[in-house]
């Protein structure tokens, strides 16, 4: 089973700053299978990035994804107030089919 | 606009059963793969299971913790997804969320979820 470990657990930044969130897999993951979601309190998760680097429809270009193999990164170039949320990475594999990281909470400093 | 509305959650004792529903609108439900994901209180996301479209074979797949206890089905005539949960355990307590598949690997649109609490 592939385990995804996200770091840091909590990231405290100010609006306008750059955020870098990490997702590390216990085994190599196909880039096409690495996904990022955003979840705000009381809301459903929202698809941000799929295929490691493709933005979903309507996602601002300040969000970008990169990485390959076991190390993937979600970068938010300049934080807006609405970006403070919990971010999850997810991979698609064989068993279990879909595995999530434990999440990174991005909070306002 | 895609809408997914879950219902059927509630309080149940260990060993009990519950059936959740997810009413879908705003897209051609029959063509879309669907998954259930759960989120325990103050915890992260955990995939529960998936059903592919009937045209794709309609097969199901489950996470190990629920395999043999949970069953996913769909009624394309009613645009509704179901999750039958049997032999419930306290560790099944969570908000259960249905989601569409954007791609095989990706969950596109998500509902708000319905809370299932298993306690004695």
**Beta-strand content bin of chain A:** over 45%
Most extensive chain interface and residues per partner: A-B, 26 and 24 residues
Nearest-integer average pLDDT of chain B:
96
Looking at the structure, what is the overall shape of chain B?
Answer: globular
Radius of gyration of chain A using CA atoms only: 13 Å
Number of strands of chain B: 11
Largest pleated sheet of chain A: 7 strands, mixed
Q: Low-confidence spans of chain B: pLDDT under 50, at least 5 residues?
A: none
Query: Strand percentage of chain B, roughly?
Result: over 45%
The separation of the N and C termini of chain A measures: 36 Å
Secondary-structure element string of chain A? EEEEEEEEEE
Instruction: Report the major sheet of chain B.
Output: 7 strands, mixed
How widely separated are the two ends of chain B? 40 Å
Radius of gyration of chain B: 13 Å
Helix/strand-derived category of chain B reads mainly beta
Number of helix segments of chain B? Answer: 0
What does this protein structure show overall?
Chain A has no helices and 10 strands. Chain A has 109 residues and is an all-beta fold. Chain A is globular, with a radius of gyration of 13 Å. In chain A, 37% of the residues are buried. The mean pLDDT of chain A is 95. Chain B has 120 residues and is mainly beta. Chain B is 0% helix and 53% strand. In chain B, the strands form 2 sheets. In chain B, strands 2, 4, 5, 6, 9, 10 and 11 form a 7-stranded mixed beta sheet that branches. Chain B has a 4-stranded antiparallel beta sheet with strand order 1-3-8-7, with no helix packed on it. In chain B, strand 9 (94-103) and strand 10 form a beta hairpin. Chain B is globular, with a radius of gyration of 13 Å. The interface between A and B is medium-sized, with 26 and 24 residues.
């Amino acid at each position: 089973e592939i385990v995804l470990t996200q770091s840091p657990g909590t990231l405290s930044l100010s609006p306008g700053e750059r955020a870098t969130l990490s997702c590390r897999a216990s085994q190599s993951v196909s880039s096409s299978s690495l996904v990022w979601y955003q979840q705000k309190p009381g809301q459903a998760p929202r698809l941000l990035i799929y295929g490691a680097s493709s933005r979903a429809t309507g996602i601002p270009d300040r969000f970008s994804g990169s990485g390959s193999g076991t190390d993937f990164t979600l970068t938010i170039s300049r934080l807006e107030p609405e970006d403070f949320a919990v971010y999850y990475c997810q991979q698609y594999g064989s068993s279990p089919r879909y595995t999530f990281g434990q999440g990174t909470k991005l909070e306002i400093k | 606009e895609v809408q997914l509305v879950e219902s059927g959650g509630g309080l149940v004792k260990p060993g009990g059963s519950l059936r959740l529903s997810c009413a879908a609108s705003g897209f051609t439900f029959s063509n879309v793969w669907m998954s259930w994901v759960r989120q325990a209180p103050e915890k992260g996301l955990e995939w529960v299971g998936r059903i592919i479209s009937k045209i794709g074979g309609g097969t199901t797949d489950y996470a190990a913790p629920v395999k043999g206890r949970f069953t996913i089905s769909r009624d394309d005539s009613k645009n509704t997804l179901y999750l039958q949960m049997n032999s419930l355990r306290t560790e099944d307590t969570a908000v259960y969320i249905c989601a569409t598949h954007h791609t095989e690997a990706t969950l596109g649109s998500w509902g708000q979820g319905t809370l299932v609490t298993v306690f004695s």
